[in-house]
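Quick board copy: two proteins, each given as sequence then tokens.
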Amino acid sequence: MDGLNNYNPVNETVARKKSWPVLKIIISLLFVLAIFAAGVSIGRGDKINLKGLSAPKSTPTALDYSSVDQVYNLLKSNFDGSLDTSKLLDGLKFGLVQAANDPYTEYLNAADAKELDNQLSGTFTGIGAELGTDENNNIVVVAPLAGYPAEKAGLQPKDIIGAIDGQSTAELTVSAAVRKIRGPADSQVKLTIIRGNDKPFDVTITRTQITLPSVESKVDGSIGYIKISQFTAETVSIAAKTATNFKQQGVKAVVLDLRNNPGGYLSGAIDVSSLWLEKGKVVVSERRGSQVLSTDYASGNATLLGLPTAIVINGGSASASEIIAGALHDNSVATIVGEKSFGKGSVQQIERLLGGAALKVTIARWFTPKGANIDKQGITPDIQVTQTDDDKKAGRDPQKDKAYEILRSKIQ
């Protein structure tokens, strides 16, 4: 959450008499090193196996690697230093995938693939913040995780991270930014934050071990409250047990808090939605352009079916949490309260590669049951309520309060 080595090659070329002009050699060397330097971003991904997909007609069935071999031969002949074959190959893969120009399509080496698995399991070391990019490719905070250093330091969704320990993030990928922000527990990192039109300011944050309880719950009178922080491998089983407990305690309405939930496993979003939806109801569809590739339906474990529900979201609600909000809203089983969600609605498929590496590739976009595109659009609340910095400092939560108010009026 909070990935990849940030290469910064410097080239000094000595002119020699070759069959190729010196300028072409320099350009070729810079080109290949630029490819090697390309990084990838770390976003949220889910393994969606969609069969029968084919490449667009404009995409060649195979690449001509002769120019790559030519550049490699020049590099091998002219580079003053040793070359690591494994790093060169990783660099080619990074650059190839980076050229797709999609922030969520990435090649992960073995170390970064393991890091992604740790994120999805809910355990990692860092500041406790999901990072992404905005429309201008700035590194931004998607969601600070509740109770962890990033939130305690005051970071907010959509905050731009302008620098890390004094180094500008202008040329960094999300993965490179993540790698720089992470570090040993109890060490510190200084972030330069840009928030709206305010003057940039520095925040020093102490890193810690992050272990997320993905589900928290309680019962207030006749209203059950369930907060889902992210969708890990354990989220569905915990949420299902919570729903059963709610029914046993005679709960008459439910508040589902998805604020600052950056997402996780798609299957988790489908199964959690199924706690409210009858079997066969549409949860989400995946589309590529105008083509519907796949549609996911409720599984039928509708433990909370018929209970008035209010969902609370904000700008840090992304990916799987947006799917649930859209599904329950479009199926008319929930009222949405809070602020517009982040708008991360692209579908990633993870393919495992030799040596522990992985390819995470965007294969489609998510659409709500009524056909609304989640990607870059987000989910707009039925009732918009903001929670200001002053509210947080004073311990006030007008968004949650409004959700309870709506439900009390319905069950009375």
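And the next:
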Amino acid sequence: MEFKKITGQAEIPVVGLGTWRLGGDVEADTTQDKEHISAIKTAIQLGITHIDTAESYAKGHTEELVGKAIQGFDRNGLFITSKVSPEHLKNNDLTESARMSLERLKTSYLDLYLIHLPNPKIPIQETMQAMDYLIEQKLIRFIGVSNFSVEQIKEAQRYTKNRIVANQVEYNLLVRNNGHVTHDMESQIIPYCQKNDILIIVWRPLAKGKLAKPGFKLLDELSEKYKKTQAQISLNWLISKKGIVAVTKSSKTSHLEDNLGAMGWRLKQQDVDRLDKECMA
């Protein structure tokens, strides 16, 4: 596994396990619990020790599955991220959300706690004061945001004495500046975060599987050139960039192993440049 630094204080694996839709979507679905717990355990055994989840995933059931899966592993060797929902950003609501996430995850602390989405109806000052409290109580190690614009990051940082260490955004070879939630990722958000030592954690790095199969001329060409899969080329393009890591959701061992093959090598700079500039359509 390769790692990147978070503000020089901790290391995070460059490829993590996303858990959205493990244990259900909006509602909890327990019919595949055994398979999903096994998938999370397998990921950790393979070296994917960054687990990304959220209280909103399957109404907390996903966190429960992660909590069961991590039992028996060295907690210090894991990097666990969860996210607080935008409707829970008032002071007391946020601290209660964090405590409930910890209870479901069966851990005494989170490595990283993110604001899942900004909520203009709740003052960000109140939210960040609650995040500071969680750090003071040693319930979380680091604070971050998700789907925040540059201005929203700046405003949030003004109201916390702790560093915002990460921003989680949608970004991949197909989605550059116009995501489902955020915009200007490549032109504004990523450059700002890189300049200010804020880690970019990419969600949907494979565009829901579109980048994990043949069909894009340049991607197919580079796959043949490097003898790597399309998914490995797509992920390597991301992690070759300063301050960018990715979380991918998979419940199949073959896909987990494929994702791991994105590490231990690098695309040549001219090929990175081509992927940066050429249209993938």
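Board note added afterward: The chain has one domain: 3-208+233-265.
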